[in-house]
Amino acid sequence: MPTAYSTPGVYVEWLDTSPVRIELGRTDVAGFVGIAERGPVQTPVKIESYRQFFTTFGDRMPDGYLAYAVSGFFENGGRTCWVVRAADPAQALPARARLQLPDRAPIDLEAASEGTWGNAIEIEAVWGRDRVIQLIARTPDEREQRLDPDLLLAPPDPQPSRTYTNLLGVTDDQLPDRDPEQLVRAVTYEVAPVRVINADARRATLEGGRDGLSTLMTGHLVGDPDAESTWGVAALERIDDVSMVAVPDLMAGQIATSRGASFAGFGKDEVQDAQIAIINSCLQRRDRVAILDMPPVNRREVLERQKRWPQTSVAAVYHPWIVVDDPLRLTANVRHIPPSGYVAGMIARVDRRRGVHKPPANETLEGVFDVREVLDDQAHAALNDKLVNAIRPVPGRGVLVLGVRTLDPDIRWRYLNVRRLFTAVEETLDEQMQWVTFEPNSPRLWRDIDRAVRGLLERMYRAGMLDGATSDDAYLVRCDASTNPEWDTDEGRVTCVIGLQPPYPAEFVVVRIGVTRSGIQIEEKGAQDV
């Protein structure tokens, strides 16, 4: 209640401005890197539906899996992802043309993004009584854009032709912070295909678009540390929201040669080195995990390849490939694809419905009909022992993810939900505790920090996100003189010690049945009791 005053005058009231409530941040945002038909090259774009993905990046491609992965992400409950279209920037070109209209200066037109898709853009001139009054750009998938009528107002002059770019492109709100000049490029053509527009020829097409895939290397998907390039996964490092990363098109090189594309730099060693680079990116960022695919091989080769994997808790591997509907009908009604996109969607669904603490396993992959290799219990056990998560069809339940292990054999970090829970807490505190910087380093600050952190962990405990009979068993917070000795405070440091008891999954449940004189006795044991 407000203080009651009797004597007229000026009163000063001190407000406690320190944060009193910290909320756990989102953990369901995925980042994808792969091959796309169109869209910005090597630039993260925020996507919130498959329709938006289709509008920005196009549909499924014969030699890539990105569109399949993103579709599976949304089908399994994902709501937000960031997508990076990978290509060789040195080779990718947008389609373009120079329009020569009657009694007007030439107009240079350029597609919104690089790729052969732009070669199908048709420019239609709408004529009035004696002149062109409108230009309309169209694509075969019925996208349409009416060009600025001001382009048609300028009379002929000796100045260079005017350039009009971003035809049928993405909007500014889909892109991260960028200089507007990077979106609308001023291009001066030395040689450009000339299209004459007159009463007899009212339509023209662009040409010269290239996808930049003929020279594609794994470095274009994960970044080239030697060149310090922000390609692929390296480009995703600029996006703080991302909590899991998948690069399904690292697997494209394993099968692309059979369909005509050339991915010479996608050998077994190059792909594994690229996946290690993804892991290193996650380790550097400390706020995300890698969802990795295995090549389309049998379990014996998977176990052989697993020997080269680093021991880390920021990555999880899934096997085998899954069977999904294929709208392209390449060889059949279905297609075998890497599972990472569908798994990422399932993880996002579990995060939203239950929380990041819930082990993302024993969950159905929606939209999956079958698996490329059916595993028996013996094969499943062998994969599980080697920290590879199995995907298996279960009668009556569909195709399920039946593993939740990371690549770390240490029991403390073996499970994906444990790693992601700690990562979520660390990221939340890092983002929402910035207010303590440059505050007076005193016991009052220590108490404020203790209260804010303790409030977050208490709410997590009550929501079932931490294990323990009491809150004292579930978490520990200490920020006082014992953690902040004088020699530390003199250096400007504040230390808060936090301990968490995560909910480890009941990976093995054993029901022991014994016959006694009084009847049958049933005893159920969890994983930690086995």
Structural commentary:
By secondary structure, the chain is α/β, with parallel strands linked by helices. The chain folds into three domains: 30-88 and 216-417, 3-Layer(aba) Sandwich (Rossmann fold), CATH 3.40.50; 96-205, no CATH class; 433-497, no CATH class. The chain contains 13 helices and 24 strands. The chain has helices at 50-57, 66-75, 180-183, 219-222, 233-236, 268-285, 299-306, 340-353, 377-385, 416-432, 443-462, 471-474, 486-489, and strands spanning 30-34, 45-47, 81-85, 96-100, 107-111, 122-127, 132-138, 144-146, 162-167, 194-196, 203-205, 244-246, 289-293, 315-319, 322-325, 334-337, 363-364, 368-371, 388-394, 398-401, 475-478, 497-500, 510-516, 519-525. α2 (66-75) runs parallel beside α8. The relative contact order is 0.12. The model is unreliable at 175-188 (pLDDT under 50).
Spell out the key features of this protein.
alpha/beta; Rossmann fold; nine-stranded mixed β-sheet; four-stranded mixed β-sheet; globular
Question: Which parts are unreliable, with pLDDT below 50 for 5 consecutive residues or more?
Answer: 175-188
Categorize the overall geometry.
globular
What's the domain count? 3
- The appropriate CATH architecture of the largest domain is 3-Layer(aba) Sandwich
Report the structural category: alpha/beta
The averaged pLDDT comes out at: 84
Largest sheet: 9 strands, mixed
The CATH top-level class label of the largest domain: Alpha Beta
The helix content is 10-25%
Question: Total number of β-strand segments?
Answer: 24
CATH topology descriptor of the largest domain: Rossmann fold
Number of helices: 13
Instruction: From the alpha carbons, calculate the radius of gyration and give it in angstroms.
Output: 29 Å
Distance between the termini: 56 Å
Strand proportion, as a percent range, falls in 15-25%
Task: Tell me the strand order in the biggest sheet.
Answer: 2-3-1-12-13-14-19-20-17
